[in-house]
Amino acid sequence: MEITQILFWFLSVLAVFGALMMVTSKNPVYSVLWLIVVFFAISGHYILLNAQFLAIVNIIVYAGAIMVLFLFVIMLMNLNAETEPQKNKWLKIAGVVAGCSLMLVFVAALRQSDELLKAPVSMGGETGLIKTLGKTLFTDYVLPFEISSVLFLSAMVGAVVIGKKGD
Amino acid sequence: MSDIPISHILFVSTALFFIGMYGLFTRRNMITMLMAIELILNSVNINFVVFNKYLYPDKLDGIFFTIFIVTIAAAEAAVAIAIIINLYRSHKSIDVEDATDMKY
């Protein structure tokens, strides 16, 4: 059992447990906090997969920006376990059964994915660093990069217009 | 590094995807449903990075797809939260089943 394998199992268990707690906890604030735990575990997976820059971006954007936004909105609306609307029990059981069946199909299909690999490949440790990524981003991916900046501008304007009080 | 089989990582992302799916179907709180969507997007991101590393280690397309998905998720969350705040103002509730009429 190597150190990467121990780390992999630890992060996997943390991610799945955090996701389960996020889905099942009644208080929305606890849901947000468990989702932040999941995002940190996923960032650890990215580091194990040689995507260091992506791990940092994931923490900054998700845990730092999106989740803080969610937390502020939840506190602004004063949501807690009492105001949480609940669906009935049978719908939850139906959700568990349907989700588990579909997951079983997926797992059975993915079981043979190890044979996809022709040979064990090793990519250099510097592949996911910002130097390599930046060079590719500003040569091959410069058009999607600029388009995403326009998308952000329109999302910003749209959020302000929609969220404006009165009409 | 490559001694972790690809199937194990795919199992983890599949589990996260279906946990997010269950959350999307069983919660009625709109904000929690949005959080379940973020979980689903993240499980897809793991798949992109894994396939990039294991199948095409000399390319970077999977990592760039993931970066663009993260940026689009940020924009989507901002607009969706603006819509939810507007709905909360007019309906005084964030239950999806209360939002049965448009605008008024």
UniProtKB/TrEMBL annotation, chain A:
<feature type="transmembrane region" description="Helical">
    <location>
        <begin position="30"/>
        <end position="49"/>
    </location>
</feature>
<dbReference type="GO" id="GO:0048038">
    <property type="term" value="F:quinone binding"/>
</dbReference>
<comment type="similarity">
    <text>Belongs to the complex I subunit 6 family.</text>
</comment>
<keyword id="KW-1133">Transmembrane helix</keyword>
<dbReference type="GO" id="GO:0005886">
    <property type="term" value="C:plasma membrane"/>
</dbReference>
<dbReference type="Pfam" id="PF00499">
    <property type="entry name" value="Oxidored_q3"/>
</dbReference>
<feature type="transmembrane region" description="Helical">
    <location>
        <begin position="90"/>
        <end position="110"/>
    </location>
</feature>
<protein>
    <recommendedName>
        <fullName>NADH-quinone oxidoreductase subunit J</fullName>
        <ecNumber>7.1.1.-</ecNumber>
    </recommendedName>
</protein>
<dbReference type="InterPro" id="IPR001457">
    <property type="entry name" value="NADH_UbQ/plastoQ_OxRdtase_su6"/>
</dbReference>
<keyword id="KW-0812">Transmembrane</keyword>
<keyword id="KW-1003">Cell membrane</keyword>
<keyword id="KW-0472">Membrane</keyword>
<keyword id="KW-0874">Quinone</keyword>
<feature type="transmembrane region" description="Helical">
    <location>
        <begin position="6"/>
        <end position="23"/>
    </location>
</feature>
<dbReference type="GO" id="GO:0008137">
    <property type="term" value="F:NADH dehydrogenase (ubiquinone) activity"/>
</dbReference>
<feature type="transmembrane region" description="Helical">
    <location>
        <begin position="55"/>
        <end position="78"/>
    </location>
</feature>
<feature type="transmembrane region" description="Helical">
    <location>
        <begin position="141"/>
        <end position="162"/>
    </location>
</feature>
<dbReference type="InterPro" id="IPR042106">
    <property type="entry name" value="Nuo/plastoQ_OxRdtase_6_NuoJ"/>
</dbReference>
<keyword id="KW-0520">NAD</keyword>
<comment type="function">
    <text>NDH-1 shuttles electrons from NADH, via FMN and iron-sulfur (Fe-S) centers, to quinones in the respiratory chain. Couples the redox reaction to proton translocation (for every two electrons transferred, four hydrogen ions are translocated across the cytoplasmic membrane), and thus conserves the redox energy in a proton gradient.</text>
</comment>
From TrEMBL, chain B:
<keyword id="KW-1003">Cell membrane</keyword>
<keyword id="KW-1278">Translocase</keyword>
<dbReference type="GO" id="GO:0030964">
    <property type="term" value="C:NADH dehydrogenase complex"/>
</dbReference>
<keyword id="KW-0874">Quinone</keyword>
<dbReference type="GO" id="GO:0048038">
    <property type="term" value="F:quinone binding"/>
</dbReference>
<keyword id="KW-1133">Transmembrane helix</keyword>
<dbReference type="Pfam" id="PF00420">
    <property type="entry name" value="Oxidored_q2"/>
</dbReference>
<protein>
    <recommendedName>
        <fullName>NADH-quinone oxidoreductase subunit K</fullName>
        <ecNumber>7.1.1.-</ecNumber>
    </recommendedName>
</protein>
<keyword id="KW-0812">Transmembrane</keyword>
<keyword id="KW-0520">NAD</keyword>
<keyword id="KW-0472">Membrane</keyword>
<feature type="transmembrane region" description="Helical">
    <location>
        <begin position="63"/>
        <end position="88"/>
    </location>
</feature>
<dbReference type="InterPro" id="IPR039428">
    <property type="entry name" value="NUOK/Mnh_C1-like"/>
</dbReference>
<dbReference type="InterPro" id="IPR001133">
    <property type="entry name" value="NADH_UbQ_OxRdtase_chain4L/K"/>
</dbReference>
<feature type="transmembrane region" description="Helical">
    <location>
        <begin position="6"/>
        <end position="25"/>
    </location>
</feature>
<comment type="function">
    <text>NDH-1 shuttles electrons from NADH, via FMN and iron-sulfur (Fe-S) centers, to quinones in the respiratory chain. The immediate electron acceptor for the enzyme in this species is believed to be ubiquinone. Couples the redox reaction to proton translocation (for every two electrons transferred, four hydrogen ions are translocated across the cytoplasmic membrane), and thus conserves the redox energy in a proton gradient.</text>
</comment>
<feature type="transmembrane region" description="Helical">
    <location>
        <begin position="32"/>
        <end position="51"/>
    </location>
</feature>
<comment type="subunit">
    <text>NDH-1 is composed of 14 different subunits. Subunits NuoA, H, J, K, L, M, N constitute the membrane sector of the complex.</text>
</comment>
<comment type="similarity">
    <text>Belongs to the complex I subunit 4L family.</text>
</comment>
<dbReference type="GO" id="GO:0050136">
    <property type="term" value="F:NADH dehydrogenase (quinone) (non-electrogenic) activity"/>
</dbReference>
<keyword id="KW-0813">Transport</keyword>
<comment type="function">
    <text>NDH-1 shuttles electrons from NADH, via FMN and iron-sulfur (Fe-S) centers, to quinones in the respiratory chain. The immediate electron acceptor for the enzyme in this species is believed to be a menaquinone. Couples the redox reaction to proton translocation (for every two electrons transferred, four hydrogen ions are translocated across the cytoplasmic membrane), and thus conserves the redox energy in a proton gradient.</text>
</comment>
